[in-house]
Amino acid sequence: MKCIAAIGVIFALLFPVQTFGVVLPSLSRQRWPWLGIKTELPVEDCGAPHDIISVQLSSCSSSPCSLPRGTNVTVNAEFSSNGTTMSGSLKHEVYFILNSVKTKATVIPATCEGTYCPFQGEVGLRFTATLLVNSTLPMLRGSLQWELRNDSTDVMLCYKIQITVR
């Protein structure tokens, strides 16, 4: 009897259906280490059409990510193309969220465009940018929200990382 229940759970996970107003989870957005897909830092997907493959910040390797005030942090992110090509430019919209206060961050370059961005990474599309950690930010724990928007202002990529400004 336990075997039948376990098979039912596995079936429900592999083939999500809507039952009594509840959507069972889909496995398509999870990361599988045996496929070589991983996230360098734990990130929260804000809900965008492209899956996050990896995010790396030069100032840290664990969460919460420590961001020293008055420094520049190099950010590398790789995301799935989901079969689409990126044409035009992608604009970075980045925010520090500290004590529920959203503060716009400065990113160089402000747009990701041309033949160098986004470029093909190991598994998906990749970009590199520099985040300026303003010296006037309060020394608090919070999150960093990163969005890439296309020319139509549609969100193409969105993720959050837990941070500590020091």
Features:
166 residues, mainly beta, Immunoglobulin-like, seven-stranded mixed β-sheet, five-stranded antiparallel β-sheet, 1 helix, 44% strand, disordered N terminus
Describe the protein's architecture and organization.
There is one protein chain. With 166 residues, the chain is mostly beta strands. It has two domains: 1-27, no CATH class; 31-165, Sandwich (Immunoglobulin-like), CATH 2.60.40. The protein is 8% helix and 44% strand. The protein is built from one helix and 14 strands, in the order αββββββββββββββ. Strands 3, 5, 7, 8, 10, 13 and 14 form a seven-stranded mixed sheet that branches. A hairpin with a 4-residue loop joins strand 11 and strand 12. It starts with a helix and ends with a strand. The model is unreliable at 1-39 (pLDDT under 50).
Catalogue the unreliable spans: 1-39
Q: What's the overall geometry? A: globular
Q: Pairing-aware structural class of the strands and helices? A: mainly beta
Mean of the pLDDT scores?
A: 76
* CATH classification class of the largest domain: Mainly Beta
Percent of residues in helices: under 10%
Count of spatially separate domains: 2
Number of helices: 1
Q: How much of the polypeptide forms β-strand, as a percent range?
A: 35-45%
Q: If you compute it from the alpha carbons, what radius of gyration comes out, rounded to the nearest whole angstrom?
A: 18 Å
Number of strands: 14
What is the straight-line distance between the termini? 55 Å
What are the secondary-structure elements, in order, as H or E? HEEEEEEEEEEEEEE
